[in-house]
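Subject: Interface between my chains keeps coming out wrong

I've been trying for a while to get a sensible model of this assembly. When I model each chain on its own everything looks fine, but I need the whole thing in one frame so I can look at the contacts. Pasting all components below, labels as-is. Any help appreciated, I'm running out of ideas.
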Amino acid sequence: MLGTLVRKEITETILDMRFWVVTVLFLILIPLGMYVSRKDYERRLANYQQEHQMYRQHYGKDVGPDVEAQGFRPPSMLSIFALGLDPFMPDKAITSRSGLVRAAKEPGINNPESLLFGKADYLFNVSFIVSLAALIFTFNRISGERERGTLRLMISGSIRRGEILLAKIVGNYIVLLVPFVIAFLAALIILNTSSAISVWSSGLWFALLVIILITLLFILAMVSLGICVSALTHGSMASIMMLFLVWIMGVLGIPKISPMIAEAVYPIESRNVVDLAARIAREDIEGEFNKKREELFEKCCTEFGTTWEDIAVEPRTDAEKQAYAKYDREVLALDSECQKRVANAIRKLEQDYRNRRNIQASLAVNLSRISPVSCYTYLISGLAGTGPAEPDKFTENAERYQEQVKAAIYDNWVVKTYRMGEPRPNIRVRQTEGFDQSKASVPDMRYEYTTIGEALRAGWIDILLLFVFNILFFAVAFWRFNKYDVR
Amino acid sequence: MKMIEIEELTKRYEDGVLALDHVSYSVEPGEIFCLLGANGAGKTTTINILLDFIPPTSGSASINGHDCNKFPLKAKRYVSYVSENVQLYGMFTARQNLAFFAELAGKKGLKKKDYDNVMRTVGLPEKALSMRLKHFSKGMRQKLGIAIALLKDPPAILMDEPTSGLDPTSAQEFLAQLQRLRERGKAILMTTHDIFRAKIIADRVGIMKQGRLVAIRERQDFKHADLEDIYMHEMEAAETV
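Reply #2:
Try treating it as a single job with all components included. I did that and got this:
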């Protein structure tokens, strides 16, 4: 019985003009979106390689103690599927001797229109076009049959309503998948023609499989939602009105409004304010330690019976040399403590800011999760390495790079700061034993994107929610359809 | 044996309208029972309850001994339904429509000759089998509705205003079809406004007014009388009561 009903749904949908319109739309948009995304990735990859190479050639060798090493972020290969936050992510991390690493982003925008309207990548095509197609396929499958009178005739037979409902979901799901799968395969062929990408590479095929499975789950949820809308209304016109309401709220409204609500409910200061607070904290601590250095120098001078004025005059006496030697030994501890205090103060400010930003972000994310489109977007962008977790991932990479540069360069230099009555500190630098500056080079940043495992662990709730949405939409549709007035 | 049985059937809608008021009657195999009455008399409501489209407020309706409200799937195994305006799948051919509804009734693997036979029986040309339903006239759709009922071949058939909108020739052919179904022992419950055709075909008529079954007349009561007069008389009598 179910097979008969499913076959009828499939035949009915295929004979409908909607099917052919959707097929043409899929066959144009999905491969085209993939082609554009592929070209975009190749361009970003080439830019990264060029910039990285030029930097290494010109600035990467014979580096001094205060070098600001630049670590470049390569584009994520999976960003072909979801560009996500990539255009807004920093391009590089710049280290510093003080232990602070900062992010930098090229200000130029090559194609501002693409940012203004958004790119038609795979994520866009599925969450906007395929979701709309799923709803257009299904919105009047029950209400339309009721209007035509065929539902009455069907239910006059010895058939369970649940079977009819299930057949409508399964039938329309299968029919929707046909053009989608064809378009997706065409898109993969386009992807595979790139020299920079191999679909069958170990890094890609598994991610691709996960993306496909999640997409199938999402499409099923949208088909169930369409059938649910149809079971909630008694006419095609009411169904189409409800369809647009649901689609606008689910695809545009909830995902866009949720971050705004989160900002209003839990406001946090801007990044600039935090940066300024960090700068002030650094200047305060450095000022405090400059005074301590002066006191130390004065103490050393007094201990060996000399003064600031005398010690500055060459040639120096033995006492003056001893005073210097003592200062040299003791100032190291002060310098180290100063650096630690600055780093701790800034780290604390950063951590506080990050904690508050995380609270705001989790509020926005959780609010937006009432839409399956949001869950799907978080999952796919997370897998693509362009999701909301990526800014933190960049910070992790940057901090790791700072440590890498510290071990390779900064730790091989001893820097001492003097203050001998001059308005500015007098800094003296020497290399550690065995270190050869001419051979020193800036290490490459080994950028690690979120792995599939990490993305799935972080996105388990979204996967669960997609299952819940499927069950919920079916349950509501079942409940309504069992009471549905077919007259 | 009673194939269709209605006992003290009452239906009051949520808005308080009493659509059926303690209605009782039955239809036996090989019998055509016509329900007459004005719009809103409760004729279609009875059919809606028999097909479990709506639940009764009280009383019972059963088909072949199975309560339509408690065991609707069992009850509906023994019944076919022909509506006032048979609406099938317009993009499907007649054959696809027939095959779909036959399969739903458990008749799988029907052959071309089965379809040809049923088309001939209802008076449709065989070439209509490959025509899409959207090109069918109302009369042709009505005949195809009967063809679906025939393919299912149940012991009981419910017909809701089946001659409404049919041209005289089609209506005449339809009556001939009903006659054949009766001869095959089908219990037929038909609601109609068409007193003229009810007189020709009915074995019994039930007259309904405002949810009440005000009279049941046997064939001998109206065979040689004017059924319209009987109908008007019963309606007036019900008004007085």
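Reply #3:
Confirming on my end. Chain A has a mean pLDDT of 87.
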